[in-house]
Amino acid sequence: MQNRLTSLSFIIGLFFSIVSLILLIGYLAGDALKEKINLYSGFIFLVFGVFMMMSGNRKPD
Amino acid sequence: MKLHIADYLIILVYFAFVITVGFIIKRKIKSSNDFLSSGRNIPLWITSLAFISANLGAQEVLGMVASGAKYGIMTVHFYWVGAIFAMVFLGVFMMPFYYGSRARSVPEYLSLRFDEKTRGLNAISFAVMTVFSSGISLYALAKLLEIILGWDFDVSIWIAAGVVMIYTFLGGLTSAVYNEVLQFFLIVLGLSPLVIVALQDAGGWANIKANLQPQLTHAWKYMGDPDSNPMGIQFMSLLFGLGFVMSFGYWCTDFLVVQRAMIARNMGDAQRTPIVAAIPKLLMPLIVVLPGVIAIALMQPALVSKGFQIPANKEGAIDYTMALPSLIAHYYPTGLLGVGITALIASFMSGMAGNVTAFNSVFTFDIYQAYFVKNKSDRHYLLVGKFVTIAGILISIATAYVAKGFNNINDFLQLVFSFVNGPLFATFLLGMFWKRTTGHGAFWGLVAGTFAAALTHGLTIAEGKGGWIAPLYPIRSGMGQAFIVASVSWIANFFTTIFVSLLTKPKPEAELKGLVYSLTEKPKYNEQKWYLRVVPLGLLLLAITIALNIIFF
Known about the structure:
A: mainly alpha; 3 helices; B: 3 strands; globular
């Protein structure tokens, strides 16, 4: 796990996953973020984030 | 433009991540080389994305969108005439010398190839330029946030500078490079939805073409006559001034970008870095030029009902630098607005961190160690590197405040930088490919080139700028003037270097091995698969670039 945390692709993936969750939870939970563009962008960020985390090297970069 | 909690949360997450990267990298920093040159241990995908991200600062993002709005699709020449050809040239021909010579910086290569005075001239001018550029970047960020969000100028300066200081102080160049890659994805993914929704709102590319003057949607068609295109230049000025002198001068000699290739794990990766970087660079106009063209199309009578407007400046003319922030404000709702603003902040911080890390390498290796304190322990130079990082940030902050007090200082500094950078490529070209070039030739060539640049600027006038000696030669656009100044300075450097070299004694050939093309063993690519070899990759990229130029002719 520690190795993964020092992998740049994992860090980038984690960042985009967190941002996507802000957009998606915000879209589902409140009015301020209830715009389709937040939903679509949040979904794409989530896919990208998960892909980057999964593709993170087992060895640190 | 008003931010909500979700927007602030995204900005805070970004700050937390870049600082965390600094703490993670800190554990790997053991020597001055780790801190200042990343120990030459960075994987290819990271060096490649950092290579273009170092150039994806505020000037690139805001400036290219502004140029897209002002000059239209012709702005792609910075990519499809300038950058790609220069990046391929750097990868195929120049990286073997930079990397193979084991130089830690571009000025150090000049010292190996020529002499200490040429290195000193380049190192001092580069150090001054980078630290002032960092300050200008900081000023522009704080000014932008003050205008679009109403944030306090001082708070913006100190927070942005503080975050950059933390992660560059902790992790040095590696930390800056890692964050540049994060910033690259943030800028690309953060601005992509904007391009899609704005393009859709404008009715697609076909509708944009129908509503704009044809000069704004053709890259080459109107380049035959300077009076018929918005840049006011003829295609030969563009090809030589931008395509050759300015682009090759920047991409092949500016240590800020070359440094990202010099930290690769091996020679093959160092050569592939600019070539792999050229692939996303080829597509970058979609993110940074197209929004400008869309913005100006949305202000045409047929699309005025969309309600989009770029604000005017003090003189009442369109303030093109506000094109991107205006698009973000118009199309992004709360949430994605936070992503867009974070992408803008990232572009400024990326530019600043890149300048600071290049500054501390050059100052420590090429000024402090070369001229002041030569034989100290590695720990000493590591501490100096860290101290210089803090000093660089503090000078940047001071520069930002000076820029706030004197509006014209930005223009003045950019002008001086162009005088110094313009002729530089001639020195490297002759130094790497003509073994007869001498240190005296290189030094006086640089001096003559800089002097010629200043003289040309003083005798030409464009958009009210220049002509401070005598406004003898009017040029329609500032961009065209920049191309001509760079061309003249390059020619002056080229011929002065040759002339002085022929009158002075060259270095013995034994000292030039690995530094000059004819005396260096050529890299062998035969054993590699074609897609790992730089020549086929480079040729493929050039073919695609030429095809794009034809498509948007």
